[in-house]
Automatic annotation (TrEMBL):
Removes the phosphate from trehalose 6-phosphate to produce free trehalose. Belongs to the trehalose phosphatase family. The lineage of its organism: Bacteria, Bacillati, Actinomycetota, Actinomycetes, Kitasatosporales. InterPro entries: HAD-like_sf, HAD-SF_hydro_IIB, HAD_sf, OTSB-like, Trehalose_PPase. Keywords: Hydrolase, Magnesium, Metal-binding. It comes from Actinacidiphila guanduensis. PANTHER family: TREHALOSE 6-PHOSPHATE PHOSPHATASE. This is Trehalose 6-phosphate phosphatase. One of its GO terms (biological process) is trehalose biosynthetic process. Its cofactor is Mg(2+). Its EC number is 3.1.3.12. Pfam families: Trehalose_PPase. Pathway: Glycan biosynthesis; trehalose biosynthesis. It catalyses: alpha,alpha-trehalose 6-phosphate + H2O = alpha,alpha-trehalose + phosphate. GO terms for molecular function: metal ion binding; trehalose-phosphatase activity.
Length: 279
């Protein structure tokens, strides 16, 4: 099984570095849209059946592997089927954009706990949505008191309603010291101070990474791509992979990527091809 060729020179160099010294490479992956196919109901999302096996074949050959996701860490572990898998004994899941951490080694989640601005915004949300709409199909996702998300995918006008929500949700976030994290038919209100780029850099430093592969599919992954790009200047080769191939994939991500693969199935195939090459 051939490893796909990156379209950039820096991407090709990073792939060579990863293959030359896998034991010094770190793999970091987003969850929704990257390992788990996008589905209408966020509570029904599950990792591609090949994801955990492909990760388990690859992770033991690397310095470390992590999932970095907007999901609560515990939810990503459950929806991913990552717990108790042979080969994933050292997997780390960084949830809520890095605010939470689960380590397979201990099975414990460390979280800063509920945020009072999120609690206050959550209380005001139903009345705000009722005033603006009402829009049938709009769904509020609770994220353990650390964030609250408004989804429009299941409405009859996902793009239009998302646009109509942008400013009111930005105002609500600002009123409670929160930031808005935009995603695929979702606007999320969460505390500032952490993003996937910050989380990725801390993880790479912790593991002494000498190279990195990061794969993502959404706007929240751009911060991680930016970290990979910046660390190249420090001599850490990095490969940015976009899981794209659908009309809703943000063009900014594909533009910033060194390699584009077709969604979660393409990511799983990439992981499998890397594991095969390292055998
Ligand atoms: O960082 P990620 O792992 O990519 O998580 C980002 C958000 O993903 C989820 O929403 C997205 O996936 C849903 C299921 O496929 C889809 O219905 C929705 O339209 C997408 O935006 C999740 O619900 C959010 O909590 C995550 O922050």
């Amino acid at each position: 099984m051939a490893i796909p060729t990156p379209q950039t020179a820096v991407g090709k160099a990073a792939l060579e570095a990863i293959l030359a010294r896998p034991e010094k490479a770190v793999l970091a992956l987003d969850f929704d849209g990257t390992l788990a196919p996008i589905v209408p109901d966020p509570e029904q999302a599950r990792a591609d059946p090949g994801a955990a096996p492909a990760l388990a074949a690859l992770a033991p050959r690397l310095a470390a592997a992590a999932i970095i996701t907007g999901r609560p860490a515990e939810v990503a572990v459950r929806y991913g089927g990552f717990d108790g898998v042979e080969g994933l004994e050292h997997l780390t899941v960084l949830g809520q954009y890095g605010a939470e951490r689960w380590d397979a080694r201990t099975g414990e989640v460390h979280s800063p706990g509920p945020h009072e601005g999120v609690t206050a915004a959550r209380t005001e949300l139903p009345a705000l949505l009722e005033r603006l709409g009402p829009w049938e199909g709009t769904w509020i996702e609770e994220k353990g008191g650390r964030a609250v998300a408004v989804h429009t995918r299941r409405t009859n006008d996902p793009d239009g309603i998302l646009e109509a929500l942008r400013q009111p949700l930005a105002d609500l976030a600002a009123a409670h010291g929160l930031v808005v994290e935009p995603g695929r038919y979702v606007l999320e209100l969460r505390p500032p101070g952490i993003d996937k780029g910050v989380a990725l850099e801390a993880f790479l430093r912790e593991k002494g990474a000498e190279s990195v592969l990061y794969a993502g599919d959404d706007l929240g992954d751009l911060a991680a791509f930016a970290t990979v790009t910046r660390l190249r200047k420090e001599g850490i080769p990095g490969l940015c992979v976009a899981a794209a191939g659908t009309a809703e994939a943000p063009p900014e991500l594909a533009a910033a990527a060194d390699l584009t693969v077709p969604g979660p199935a393409g990511v799983v195939a990439l992981l499998a091809s890397l594991a095969a090459a390292m055998r």
